[in-house]
Each structure stands twice: as C-alpha cells, then as structure tokens.
Amino acid sequence: STQSRSSAASDVYKRQGDMSDDSPFFITGSEQKGPWLITCDHARNHVPAAVNGGSLGLSVCEMQRHIAYDVGAEGLSLALGKYLQSPVLCSNFSRLVIDPNRGEDDPTLLMKVYDGTLIPANRNTDAADVERRLEAYHRPYHKAYSELATSDRAIVAVHSFTPRLKGRSPRPWEIGILFAKDRRLADLTIARLQARGNLTVGINEPYDGHLPGDSIDQHALPRDLLNILIEVRNDLIRTKKEQNAWAQLLAPILRQALAATDTSKAGE
After folding, report:
1. 35, 64, 117, 224 from 155: Cα distances, Å
2. Angle at 144 between CA 140 and CA 150, to 5 degrees
3. CA-to-CA distance for 106 and 235, rounded, in angstroms?
4. Distance CA 241, CA 39 (A)
5. What gap in Å lies between CA 39 and CA 73, rounded to an integer?
6. Does residue 13 surpass a pLDDT of 60?
7. What are the DSSP calls for 216-253, one per residue?
8. Distance between CA atoms of 92 and 264, rounded to whole angstroms?
9. pTM of the entire predicted model
C-alpha cells in the first residue's frame, strides 16, 4: 500500500544526483556500424528541473516503480548495443513527464493517474503544459530517433513490464515479442525463443504490438524498416548481471533472425 511507506521512502522524489544533464535523450555507440538501432523509450525515471522543479510530487518508492520508467530496460538496451555493435537511443525523462512511446494526440500521452497512483504534478496540467513538454522532450527525442532510423538498420525497441498490473493475475511470460503488421523479424525471433524450451514467450503479450502513433508506428512502419519490440518482465532484469545475461541470450537470436529475414516489403 502506498499509504504504508516507510518515512525514508515517503520523501518526495527529487532528481537523482548523477542526472544533472537535462538533455531529452542520450545516444551510446553512435560510431558503431552494426545493422541495428536499439531504442529505449522509457529508459529513466528522471524528472528535468524545468518540470515542477524536478519533482512530480511522488515518493521515491513510486518513482522506482514501472509507472515512472521501464525498470531494467536501459541496462538491457546498452548491453544489447555492445553485443550487436550498434547504436542505442535512450530517453532521459520519465514517461510520467510525457510518454515518448505515444503519439501527440494519444489520451495517455500525459498520465494523471497510472496503475492506481495519482501524479500530483500532472493533476492540473493544461494544453500549454503539454505543449511545453512536447517541445522540450518528446519532439527532440523523436527527431533523434528519425535521424538514427536509417534504411540500413533494423529497429529493436526494448521495454520491460511489471509482473502484475492493477491487481490482475500474475503475468506468466518471461518475455514478450510485439509487432504490428510487419512480422518479418518477430516471427523468426519468436520461433527461436520458443525452441529453447525454457521460456514462456508472449506473442503480442502483455500488450498488443499495434499502437497508432507509438515509436514503431512513427519511425518503422511508414518506411518498411525491419522492427521488433521486446518486452522483458522487469523482475528478471533488475541487476546488471541479469541484464547482461538476457542480452547474451537475445543477441545471437536477433542476429540469426535478421540473417534469415525476408527483406522484401512488409505489405499489409
């Protein structure tokens, strides 16, 4: 219960000490020549100083939950970038500031309540507030995304999901592979993951892979770029060791899938 937090955990969350840079994104391995672009839309729970003084009015515990960012996804993305020798694009602002994996007209672009938690600094936001956050964070991130998403790269979007959402039944999948109309990379990756025999693989689970206006919809589908969205359950990638282990598992599977992929147009 959020009402039974310890006194230490109930302190209002402020910007982390090592995050003085309020740039809306960061790119790692821009010099890498591998055939991938790894993206992490929800990499960090950072709240820039320009947004309500660097706080959304939530406790440390709340800001460490999945509502604020994709736990473990940044580390997994960076490890994948290393193994695939490809650039990694990460957001540098919490999804609660504004969600970069939503279109500008999506009603969940700026959440006022998420998984039972009221977001105090978002409660009274108006259209002008949303526009300021779009201009400062969302649009620069997508500009960088567009510049990196070249025709010779396949996009791997890395996310994580909570083991349980909104009090529902536990989610049984260790990993989910999401896709919209383009299944070229996804089907081959799913087959290789299932062939291991020790993973419960979600196919467009725990979410549907088609979300109009999301990052893949904006940057991959209009240009028929090969793409895949990977969701790993966040209790499995909380440590650097776990993140590295999953990257070591996924990298060869992705390489094999790409080598076997029909690069003809995705079609409808």
Report:
1. 9, 27, 32, 11
2. 150
3. 28
4. 20
5. 10
6. no
7. HHHHTGGGT--EEEEEEEGGGSSSHHHHHHHHHHHHHH
8. 34
9. 0.90
